[in-house]
Queue: 3 jobs
Job 1
Amino acid sequence: MGPEHSSGRMERFLQMCNDDEEYVPVMNDSFMMQQLHEINWFICNPSTPANMCHLLRRQVHLPFRKPLIVFTPKYLLRHPDARSSFDDFTEGSEFQRLIPSSVDPTNVEKLIFCSAASTATGNKQAHMTEISHFMKDAMDLAPVPEDKATF
């Protein structure tokens, strides 16, 4: 490992978040904005160029300021699934806090949250073993997108 390589320890940042896993929030219209306002910083791991773009746009347009920590694995630099079409950048598109898999949710046995490179690897393994797991690609790691955690 040379000076151009670094290894961010995501778990260290996640441990310092004030996102309480014991607390179950009330889901209402202002849930997402309230959740973003109460967290001490944002930790994200975008897996597509469009989501990275929208993440930075969201950060600039929020009515308050919080630190943004972005992890981007080197594995996804040339991965074929880590691409975005032009339509993903245009008006009407936005930051996707959670990207569901293409598995039919009626046959789901387990809900698995993955992040970036884990999703690419996990999708390959799920297709090889034909396990009916429903994988969601979590872009927002802190705060946890609890409002999107349904089938």
Note: The beta strands are 42-44, 68-70, 98-100, 110-114, 133-138, 140-142.
Job 2
Amino acid sequence: MFRLLPCSSIKILLIMLSVNIFWLVRVYPPAHNTNAGQSVPQLKAEAMPGCPQNLEVVNKPLPLPKYSFEGALPVKNNNTISLTFDNIDLRYGRWDSQQMYKIKDFAVVGDQYAESSEASLICLATQSSVERLYSLPQVAENWRGPLSVALFSAGNEEYIVLRYFVTYLRLCFPNVKANATFHILVPREFDNLPTVQMDTVNIKNKYNCQYPERTLKALLKFRTAKTLEWRQKNTYPQNHMRNVARKGCQSKYVFLTDVDIIPSINSVVQLNHFFKTARCEGSCAYVIPTFEIDVRATFPRTKDTLIALIKKGLARPFHEKVFIYNQYATNFTRWLLSKRNETAVSVSHTVTNFEFLYEPFYIAIDKVPVHDERFTGYGFTRNSQVYEMYVAGYKFLVLSPVFTCHWGLQRKQARPAWREQQNNANRKKFDVFKSEIFARYKNDPHL
């Protein structure tokens, strides 16, 4: 249990962290000139290449309890807050296999991570760029179990943003502070990107724990054009991040997601009951159906309320309009027609019509194939790993009534040039990958 500080002390800590955030934004506004002569607004007009896409921005208060500060971070002798990752030296860490990225495993461990990992059969592993991290509070609130979170920092500026924002998350959201363990991945060029020092000043303003996205947007203005240029020229290492997050889990089963995929409420309790007695012949992966919901809707508390949203046109299967083959094999129709008023988790059905490019979010023992790290950026990152699982003989079992949601009804839009370039590059890599998989397993599914 956390020991609460006196109200006055908590207010002081709140003000001091606000000081830091305000100072960063005011003293280091977005740069309008760099060696390349480009401005930040021009660079920010397009989403960062390879980052998980949320086509409709949710800029409203998250459906979270109105938290007060139930925990606090240490205060140094000079009365400044000890920021998250304060004792981390990024000059040291393990390299990935190609020495392209340096990794700091367990950079910050959740206060109750060991206990929650021991108590839960399932750990949720997720990954995020700095832009998408505002989704984590709702993930942590709904999950309430062990979370292994891999964070990518392109350079020193983004690392500073992460330090302030993760501090904010740990102060504001008890489930993040208790259950979330963070790992950091930085590129080899990290030290060549802009470097600044961190200071504090006094300020009277306060920030709002109900608006993590608004807080993060204010911090992101701190990045200069040089950092954003690097992000545009370099692909986001999604599969490196997934592997780091997976290996950070300490439970028997791993539920691998992206950070903007929100699990249904109370699902960790329901899933633990299921996996206590689950039996699988051979190799199994348990698919959790994913839906996208209109930003005007309230997050569905149950499968029945989700079905009601679908009937109103406020929810639908994930990527149904953008790229149907992404989730089509899940067979949402069958899932939606299964018995109503369910509480206990059970297998709804088995995936029998596996489609090439299928990429469900699933739970499995972490003996599944690694995510191949030659695939970076957009295209073939998740589905290549699921394809290998299928060739290796895994069965995909769809669970009910648990589900996940993604905010925003996504619409098909013209692909930006960078996205098409990354997809084409990964398609060529996949041709080689597919041949390797055939040779490894002596099995060609002819998909």
Note: Residues 261-441 form one domain.
Job 3
Amino acid sequence: MQLGGETESGMNRLQLAGVTCSWFNPSKVAYLQYETDLNAKRALERIKSLGSKQLIGRKLDVMYQPVRSLQVGNLDLNTNEAGLRRFLPSPPPTKVTWGPKSHRRVYSQYPKRAKQNTKIIAKFSEAEAARKAVKEMHETRLDPDSNDKMQVTPLVSIKLSVSSRILAAIQPQLDPLVDRTWRTDYVQIKRYEDLSKQYAQVRIFGQSRERVAKAKSAVEKLLAGHIAANGNGPITDPFYFRPSSKSFLDDLAAAHCVFIHQDLRRSVLRLYGGDTGIEQVERALVAKCAELKESFHTIFLDPEALAFAIKGGFRQIVAALGKDKVKLDIINNLKRIIVEGSTKDVDQIQEILTSCAFSSMETQIAVLSISGDGSEVFCPVCFTPPEAPIKTSCGHLYCSSCLVSQCTSADSFPLKCLGEGAACGSSITLADVKKVLSGIEYDNLFQTSLTSYLRSRTAKFQYCSTPDCDRFYRISNSEKPRTFDCDGCLSSVCTSCHQNPHDGLTCEANKALIKAAMEGDEELAKWKKDNDVRDCPKCGVPIEKAFGCNHMECISCRIHICWFCMKTFGSAGETYKHMGRTHGNS
């Protein structure tokens, strides 16, 4: 599971269920004998000077063999003596002798390609099956009598969903990164773009988890852009996240050849482009903030002023200044009126608050009613007749904008209705908030709610142990531990003991092994004896029998074992047959 990270990539898709299998294609060796040792050495230099020239798609491997002889390897199986002689520079050999083929299998069993080696990708349904294939098949001989071995390595792949506009903006920085990661770490970065769609895909893949994670981090750093900031931190002025700011930001971006992304989820501005342009845009944003700051004011309400505002005073303020200029915030501990306007507007509000007596207001304005008995209904947030009214599941009417404000500023959950002077207490449902929130606002509310949920349930959920990684997993019991493969930092962890995965061992056994390894061989031997832990007869890996019958299978080498006598077998059937015949039970 994941929370939103500090980049502009969407949901990651980690794929660990693939492996890469590669091996050298079949070849043969020729031994060339020359008339003199000088001719052999001269021929060696001339063959090496051929450079990248190939014979039947193969670059030859040549070695000097004392005396008067050369060994020529990596020859295609179809190479004959006549063809070899035509390819070789002078002086010609006096005799050609063929060595054995590198593989015993016939050539028809292999792809008929000119390349020196064959590479295939196999995909499994689960990551565990891929890990098992690497354990069992890596470095296995292609033939019993061959020295050539098959290389089976994990294929680590991660896909990022990225805004097409951001991907286009970072292309000048991304192209050199693509080249560098391949040259230095053999990690590939590929883009999959469709100009008609809002999002594109970036795939990062290679054989090393650590190197893929390193490349992913570099790509995400580019995707994160430069967060516009002033001297005190990121610029978060609400003006920049309203539709009305679009023309200002578009003009500013065009003037300095910079792309400005409004990250509504985190309320920050991300800048993409050249260093000079970004610096100029940031200065302009800071200057605009200073200008905007002069137009925002806060009036804190004491209990008497709050009571007056709720009973109808705020309605008078809205009537005097307009609803777009004032906001009553009673959700937080500090009750206040937020004003977007001039100091003259603030003075007018103060005059209303101080000039009208609370008692007279009770006679002038009816007590707020939502009973449906014909009396006027007021929004429980701004205490004015609802604009673009929305009725909640519990039956109270809100202004659409007020319900949005309550949802987006919430820091405690579940959200509660403020109807009946905040005495309603009913939960605001997902159906309610979906009526008024945009997709991004809804996602942001969900993220905030989820974070609150996780923090209150630390016995059930655990964050990934990698610093700054925001992924999390459900904790499992020690009897059934699972492996969590993090798609953020690409690390793996046991979901029970929160240590490195330990396939085939319980958490307790793994802890004991680690402790014994730290304390020395004597402690290890004592622990194994006390817990009946035995070494695999074939590969020596410690095996603990936690439960079940006496047929065991080594998680490392996959050999089947009779736990009674520790004899080994090639299959489960052979093991059970032996146990029934020799030991009389299973």
Note: The mean pLDDT is 83.
